[in-house]
Amino acid sequence: MAKCGECGPGYKTPLDAMKGPREEIVYLPCIYRNTGIKKPDYLATVDVDPKSPTYCQVIHRLPMPNVNDELHHTGWNSCSSCFGDTTKKRNRLILPSLISSRIYVVDTGTDPRAPRLHKAVEPIDIYWNCNLANPHTTHCLGSGEIMISTMGDPSGNGKGGFVLLDGETFEVKGNWEKGPKVPKLGYDFWYQPRHNVLMSTEWGVPKCLANGFNPADLEKGCYGSNINVWDWTTHELIQSIDVGKNSIPLEIRFLHNPDAAEGFIGCALTSAIHRFHKTANGTWAAKRVIQVPSKKVDGWALPDMPGLITDILISLDDKFLYFSDWLHGDIRQYDITNTQQPKLVGQVFVGGSIVKGGPVTVVEDQELDCQPDPFIIKGKRVQGGPQMIQLSLDGKRLYVSTSLYSGWDKQFYPDMVKEGSVMLQIDVDTKKGGLKVNKNFLVDFGKEPEGPALAHEIRYPGGDCTSDIWI
Questions:
Q1: What are the EC numbers (predicted)?
Q2: Cα gap 293→270, rounded to integer Å
Q3: Among 197, 212, 190, which residue's Cα sits nearest to residue 33?
């Protein structure tokens, strides 16, 4: 069995990582903004070891010093991109705050089961040093630095830049991006040094989406349409790939093989998966390879309900692609052995907006014969739909949480805000494909001591397939 950290943080290759130990605990940011509970967001440590007496329980909570931060996605101070450097340790979890623009640095190394706050980077440091705000995705770099994408400027306008933090002091070093061009919007990113490229995506203008989704904002240019291509060496924006007006391209994933010059991106509003790849002339292109049809409905905000693909990931062996349809309520597994023709091999419904007995009636459906039953597990009816997903290193367990973002949770799933989100586990058939809910696994964040919380992204202490990049 491979052991993480023998030659610096992480693993030498993605296939080595697949041989790593089974996850025993996971970290999730839990949000109270927009819930009516005037408490700080916190980092929850959850026991996921079936042999443990505290299995499926929150065993530690680390509250932040401030309220209304909107903790969102997290990342590491170092990962497999630093493999081979024995001076580096994966011992600090970086927690950017989407709304307050603070960045918290949490010590997970001293006691992984009881993390403690190490440092807070205040918004003013990001504003003054970078003229950026609304930090989102964190990736460590092979240089030892930490890079965080942003969605806006200090005034709440859209701006797709990148903040660099020192990997030891966590001081703001400045902007990563150079040159005259900066995308109007930002969100997620991934880099692939062997092809001298970084790719970033676009959600929306922070001041437009801060408190909810208004369809009128689509025609005002408030939401994203592009994959932005950067030169890894010069840090300059060199190309923008249009994947559809208002498509809202969110999570972007290269194949894990560092030689690969291709990957996938999930577009939320158009509910499409695009494959992007390097062309013969060295530029980059994208083509839609999966389309989730909208459903015609009554009793909802619009007559057509998209699936709303909000998270995607690729297994470490680059065999399967997974994604969640937050509104329709299903998680899908595709065989991507042929990346140009993904094949659906697994699907499971765990909630969503189209369940029987709810306010929404489906009047036309290209995929289902009838509306799914409400999802009930261990006596609890799950409100909301599947959102953030995380795969075990061996690919056999898929963890799912149901909160997207508190402003949108409140709008689309008000009952989830009242009753709290959940974390579920899906068993995966890694040979033929197939998904099945583990009926013995439920973490109910509706029973938290300070009141129902909205739990978001899932991280393993030893790294995972959405935090680690191999170079």
A1: 1.8.3.4
A2: 9
A3: 212
Neighbours of 245 (CB within 10 A): 14
d(CA 161, CA 210): 19
Cα–Cα–Cα angle for 428, 432, 434, rounded to 5 degrees: 35
Q: Which helix (H) or strand (E) holds 143?
A: none
Tokens of 142: 């092979």
Please name the residues in contact with 457: beta carbons below 8 A apart, sequence gap of 6 or more: 28, 29, 72, 73, 74, 388, 390, 401
Residue type, 364: E
Domains defined for the chain, CATH in brackets? 14-455 (2.130.10.10)
Query: Could you tell me which of 252, 130, 99, 276 has the C-alpha nearest to residue 189?
Result: 252
pTM of the model: 0.97
> How many angstroms separate the CA atoms of 411 and 448, rounded?
22
pLDDT in tens, 306-359: 999 999 999 999 999 999 999 999 999 999 999 999 999 999 999 999 999 999
Q: Give the other-Cβ count within 10 Å of 155's Cβ.
A: 11
Going across the sheet that includes 25-31, the strands are 58-67, 40-47, 25-31, 454-455
The number of CA neighbours under 13 Å toward the Cβ of 176 is 28
> What pLDDT does 455 receive?
98
